Each structure stands twice: as C-alpha cells, then as structure tokens.
Amino acid sequence: MNVLLVDDEIELVDTLAERLNMRGIEADWATSGEEAMAIEGKTYDIAVLDVKMPRISGIELKKKLQVKYPGTHFIFMTGHGSEDDFRAGSAEAGSDYYLVKPVDIDILIQKMNEVLEKASE
Amino acid sequence: MRIDSERTEGKNSQTRPMTTLIEKLKPKFWDHRDDTAGPFNRMFNFRFVWKVSVFLMSAVALLPLIFITVVDYQVTQNAVRSEILFRTSRLVSNTRRTLYFFLDERRAVLNFIVKDNTYDDLNNEVRLSELLNNLQKEFTGFIDLGVIDADGRQSTYVGPYPLEGADYSDQGWFKEVVERGSYISDIFMGFRRIPHLAIAFKHDLPNGDSFVLRATFDTERFEDMLSNLMISGEGDAFLINHDGILQTRSRLHGNVLEELNLPVPPFSENTQVNETSDEAGNRIILGYAYIADTPYVLMIVKQTDELMKPWYKTRSQLIGFLMVSITSIIIVVLGIVTFMVSKIDQADQRRFAAMHRVEYENKMASIGRMAASIAHEVNNPLAIINEKAGLIKDLFTFREQYSQDSKLIGQVDSILQSVKRCGAITKRLLKFARNMDEVIGPVNLVLVVREVLGFLEKEAAYRSIQITVNADEDIPEFETDRGKVQQVLLNIINNAFAAVSEGGRIEVVIKHRNKDSVMVAVIDDGCGIPAANIRQIFEPFFTTKSKIGGTGLGLSITYGLVQEIGGTIDVKSEVGEGTRFTLILPLTYQKKPDHREKSNECTVGG
User: What CA–CA distance (Å, rounded) separates B301 from B296?
Assistant: First the structure.
C-alpha cells in the first residue's frame, strides 16, 4: 500500500509516515499542497490530507491530485470538530472519509483498508 | 445565574402583613430602578414620571374646576348677600316712612287745632274736652290734651290725670318747644304704666304772647305696626332714641325703656344697612334710619345665619359637588397615569430584556467561536503529541531491546491516554460551540442531558453532589433546536448546582408523557425558593436588586428559549426542601415567527 500524507505540521506527517513505515505501509509525506504536487514518478493508493492548510486547502488539493493520480482514494484529517462540521465544508469535494485529530494510528490504518476494500468491490 | 441570593429576600414581605394591601396596590414600576439606563435615566425613573404626570394632569383638570367653583361661590354669595341687604334696606325705608307719616299726621292735626281755635277756646275746658273726644274718635291712642301758658304752667287740661296747674317751666321739653316751636318726646311710662309719647306745639298769639298745646297718646299703634311687620331671618324691628334707649318692645333686644345691647348707629339722613355682630357674637344685619323731626331711630335687626340658610344649602351642594368632582378626577387621573406608566414600564422592561438577550446571545456566540477556535488550535499540537508518543511506543514495541520494559510502555500509554482525554474534551467543546447556532435536527434528549451533565461532572465530584438520571426507555428522538434545549438544560441544572450544598442530590427525570410531549424534571434538595419570589423568578431583572450574582436574566432567558421551542417551564419549590423545575417539550417542532431573526443572523452567525 502506497500512501501520501499531506499536513502543514511537519512533525505530524514526518512521525506518522515513520510509524506507518514501521507497520509495512509505504508512506511519503509533504507539508503543503505545492510540495505534494511537486512529487514526481510515484503513484499512491491513498492520500491522507489535512483539511486546513495554508494557500491550498485539503479540498482544493484533492481536486488537483485526482487529476494527477486518477486511481487514488482520499481520506481527510481535520482538527475541526465532527461529522456535521466536516460535511458542510467538504460536501462539494465529495469526500468519503474523514478522521478527527488526534487520530489513533490503528484507526487510520483500519480506515485505509476500508477505503481500499470498498474500492475493489 | 444564581438564584440563591434572592431566596433570602422576600422574608420582609411575609413579616409585614399590614403592608400587604399597599404592596398589592403598588404598581410594579414603583420599585423598579433602571440602573443601566444611562445618562437619561430620569426618563426611566418611573416613580418620578408617575409623580410628574399625576401632578400635571391633576393640575390641568382641577385648577379650572376649583377656579370656577370659587368664582361661582363668590358671585352667588355676594348676590345672596346683596339681595338680603337690599330687602332689609327697603323694609327699613318703608317702615320709616310709615312711622313718619303716622307721627306727622298727628302733628298736623294738632297743628290744625292750634291754628283753628283761639287761645280762649282752647282754655275752655268744655271745648278742649270736645276736641279730645273728637281726636279719640278719629285717631286711636290720644289720652289727654293740655294748654300750657308761656310761663310753663298748664292752664287747662283734659284727660285722666289731675294735671291742671302743673308747672313745666323747668322741664327740658318745654324749653325746647319754646325754642323750636314743636316737640316730640321720648317714650315714657305714663301713670298707667303704658308707654306714652307726647307732642307739643307752640303757638304765637297776635298780642306777642304764646302758648303750648300738648297731647299725649299711647304707643300701642306703634308697637302694633312694628310687631306686625313680616321680617325674615328672625328679624326684630324697634325704635330707640338717640341715647340707645328702647322706645318700643323688641323681641330679642330688650323691653321698652331698657338700654339696647347694641351700639347706637351713627347719624345718617338715609337708610343704612350694615353687617355686624351682636353681643353674643352672632352675625346680624342691622338696618336703621333716623326718623326726621323725632328723637327716634328705627332699627331692624336680622340674624344673618337665618337669612343665609338657603345659601348655606346651596353652598354645601356646591362644596359637595366640588369634592365629588375632585375625588373622581383624582381617581381617574391616578388610574390613567398608573395604567400608562405601567405600560411604558412594561415596554421598557421588554426593551431592556431584548437588549440583554441580544447581549447574552452575542456572548454565547463569542464563547462558541472561541471554544471552536481553541479546540481547533489545541487539536493540532495534540495530534503531534499523539504521533510522537505513538512513535515512541512503536519504537519500544518494535525493537526487542525495550519491548519487555513494561514500565516505559506504561508511561507512553499514559501519555496516549491523556491525549485521548484531551481529544474528547475538545470534541465536546466543539460540539457545544456548534450548537450555538440555530440548527433544527433530531435530538436525543437523554444524550443532551448527559452531555450537559458532562460539563458539570468535575464540579459535582468536587462538591460530592450526587447526580442521578432517571430516563424512560422509550424517549424518542425528536426534531427541535438542539442548541436551545442544551442551553435551557444547562441553565436549569446550573441553578440546581447553585442551590444545593455540598453532598446534595440532583435528580434528572426524563419521561415520555404522551405522544406529543416529553418532560424533563430537574429536582434538587437545595435551599428552595420562597413562595413570594416564585411568581417572579421568570421575570427579567428579578435579581437586579441583589448585590451578587448575575443580571437576573438567566431564568428569563431560559423562559424565552423554552417558549421559542414551543415548550413550557414550571417551578415548584419549598424553602429548605428543594426545588423542582419541570420542562415540557413538544415532540413536533413548530418554528415560531421570530422578529429577532435578522439580528441573530448578524450577531450569532458571524
């Protein structure tokens, strides 16, 4: 499983990527939308995006990445509240999955698997 | 909102039963002080407004009335008085004229006798007695006739007394008749003890001698004339001489030849009428006239009070009318002013309450925004801590070296546990903040109650307050404004917290009442609310008088919120026993038209 993590908090993505790697999941990370778009020569099964980032928000980034990586699935992470809140903001982006920070790594992995399972159906 | 501070008030009103009626009549605005009214607070001092309005309205209504009544009083009184004086004056004049003619007639007849008879004829006793006889036939009251020579000796006399030869030369009247030609005497008692008066004439003879003819007659005719006068006002008509000696009987002022108990009025040629008072201090009307060529003064005395009796009756009617008018005007003015000022006061209170609601809503919105922002900001570092601690744990777990060190793992686990707790707190905060906005959606009442209690569980633990929730199993989810329900419950439960002491109990009962409504009751065993205050606790500003605690808006806002979601709230309380707030919510939400919607949008929605 190839995963791209995008969050403006380097400490978060860096650590999260390392932990995922330790669990056998290949994870790259970027700290902004621009950085993420700059990555070349890779494909990802799943991209985990922070909703609230400077310049390019997670929702905008999703639209761009969808073009760049047509087969990629998206999961959002947000520091903001809950389902209702998130839905209101991301409705147009049509996101399927979201997680509220702080995220338990086991739950994140579980979510990723769910996404892939659902996609393969 | 704390209501315990006001629970101690109210005692006063119970210990003073005397004042309860006044308390009942006293309009609500009387004690209402709008401390926050600002620079124009005089406009909101309703006691002052009331006083000024009552004063001005009463003045405008009463002054013209009183003025007209006083003028009318004066005019009528003067009219009555001058009528009385005029009538008295006329009576005096007429009577004087009658008396004058009476005397003049007798004087004329004697004058005629003197001129028609020679001195010798008159000195002839037969002739004189014939004359007397004729006089007595024509004019009643003649008693005797006498001829007195120039030396004052009575030369001839006819009459009942042996007066022939009597010498009058030393007597004042003789001197006066010699000097002035005629004389009318004061009244005197004759030998028969009957009041008499004498008339004398001097006649000059051609030979230069002179003599005097003197006649006396009793004054019965006088008396009859005066006593037969119809005099109103217990009046009295009589004659006095110039020295104040009564010449005729009077009814009230003494008998003949007694001294009059009133001062002799000053001389006047005309009839005079005065108001004065008699010896006893009674007010009298005194009319008098000096009768020309006689020593008599005719006096008519009337009792003013008797004469004014009809006027007194009119006066009482006038005063009665005035009093009734004033009373009814004052009652109407008081009623109208009290009603109007009460209305203004109510409007002001509503304005004030609305202002405070907006303030409250703004405050809650700010709190909501701040809570959301804090939660969001805290969540990010929390996520980093979470990952870092997770990584440490991963490192320990994945590397054989530490995997057996349960102590280290335990430390990391506890960090992760704390992160979870923090996350739970921020989530709850965010949820609460979001509910500040008006969102109609399905609400699980039991869950909301538990959430609200969640905010207070730490305080409950510190104060060892026992909280129990008894919920029916079948409470349905229903559409309503979740934020409002939450605020209402928070307010009520907060009140319960404020009321109970350490170790107290709070019970929340949730019941599915019927197919239309559910009930939430919050029951505490706290200090309770006095009966006197219980009616007022939902009114705005109820606590504004207390020194501590909030604005008194908590329960009024709660009341408003409950109404907005179509519910009812009710309170029962016993001092020392506890309080029970009962909230009934409808299961179908009907949005009420809200005139403040616009302001909500710009203040809360931001």
Answer: 16
To which residue do tokens 């919920």 refer? B471
B184 contacts B295 by C-beta, under 8 angstroms: yes
Within 8 A by CB and 6+ apart from B215, the residues are B106, B110, B135, B142, B143, B144, B145, B146, B198, B199, B200
- How far apart CA B422 and CA B213 sit, in angstroms, is 149
Q: What is the ipTM of this complex?
A: 0.84
Per-residue model confidence as pLDDT tens digits over B8-21 = 444 444 455 666 77
SS3 label, residue B288:
strand
Lowest mean pLDDT among A55-64, B38-47, B445-454: B38-47
Q: Which residues of B touch A84 (CB under 8 A)?
A: 434
Q: Of A84, A85, A105, which has the smallest distance from its Cβ to B390's Cβ?
A: A105
For the segment B480-485, the average pLDDT, to the nearest whole number, is 84
DSSP strand E in A13-113: where?
26-30, 46-50, 73-78, 97-100
The answer to whether B394 contacts A80, with C-beta atoms less than 8 Å apart, is no
Establish if A100 touches chain B: CB-CB under 8 angstroms. Answer: yes
Q: Per the structure block, which two tokens stand in for B494?
A: 């907060």
- For residues B165 and B151, what is the distance between their CA atoms, to the nearest angstrom? 11
Pairing relationship of beta strands A26-30 and A2-6 according to DSSP bridges = parallel
Token pair listed for B80: 């009555």
Q: Tell me the H-state helices in B117-183.
A: 119-123, 125-138, 172-180
Q: How far apart are CA B557 and CA B561, in angstroms?
A: 6
Q: Using DSSP bridges, classify how beta strands B478-481 and B466-471 pair: parallel, antiparallel or unpaired.
A: unpaired
Question: pTM, whole model, 2 decimals?
Answer: 0.52
